[in-house]
Amino acid sequence: MTTDVSNTSPRRGTLIGLGVGPGDPELITVKALRLLRAAPVVAYFVAKGKTGNAFGIIASHLDAEQTRLPLVYPVTTEALPPPLRYEDVIAAFYDESAMLLRAHLDAGRDVAVICEGDPFFYGSYMYLHDRLCADYATEVVPGVCSMLGGAAMLGVPLVYRNQTLTVLSGVLPADELETRLESADAAVIMKLGRNFDKVRGVLRKLGLDKRARYIERATMAQQRIVPIDDVDPMASPYFSLLIVPGVKWQA
Ligand SMILES: C[S@@+](CC[C@H](N)C(=O)[O-])C[C@H]1O[C@@H](n2cnc3c(N)ncnc32)[C@H](O)[C@@H]1O
Q1: S-S: 84 plus which of 18, 43, 80, 111, CB 3.0-4.6 Å?
Q2: pLDDT by residue (tens digit) across 97-114?
Q3: Which atom of ligand 1 is nearest to the CA of 123?
Q4: CATH code: domain of residue 161
Q5: 3-class DSSP assignment, residue 162
């Protein structure tokens, strides 16, 4: 559904948050593909010197007429030397990115911001949405998020019957992870990378390490499923997650 907040003329462009799925190019929705092909401007977040994971998923669908608008993150880690604060640097970056998009939207051009997985599930698109949705019509197209792609590739049902699913960030301190995992029926732990060793320690302490499953780059060509004990914590990539499936309920 499109949210239209503009009744001014000439027509302003629509901001589109476009989920492109977890990596397998066939996991993009029919709707996302249609809107992607029709968008005059395609924006995407990318780390300095990289192609961008989301962009890689959809690049072959673009034609030469479409404007590519890379939004290059100024930092790739939250650890910055004082007096720099990650929160300030990243907020300024989203402000500048929103201004770039405003220029296209004010000129009447729709802008599709492509987003790996789903735009509203830990997607950077949401920071542009928050800055722009009061001034422009928006449309958000949901995508297959990484935890669902991961569960499918692992072949593990996530939650049975009345179980609840807890989604956690590996960035949380160990004691908080422990408390939340203790009360979880089933859990997904995202944002591992350098947090992997800490998270594995908590799973071992709670005896969940035998139930938990680890997957890297789920649904992508380079996907790897590795037993938890064999994961090298120094080499665990950003695109990885852990799933603690709910205990099987025999119907
Ligand atoms: C900023 S969040 C983006 C989530 C994304 N919007 C989604 O819907 O899944 C990035 C985290 O998602 C997880 N992730 C994203 N894609 C993944 C994939 N293909 N395989 C495993 N984990 C993935 C990782 O835990 C990564 O640290």
Answers
A1: 80
A2: 999 999 999 999 999 999
A3: 6
A4: 3.30.950.10
A5: coil
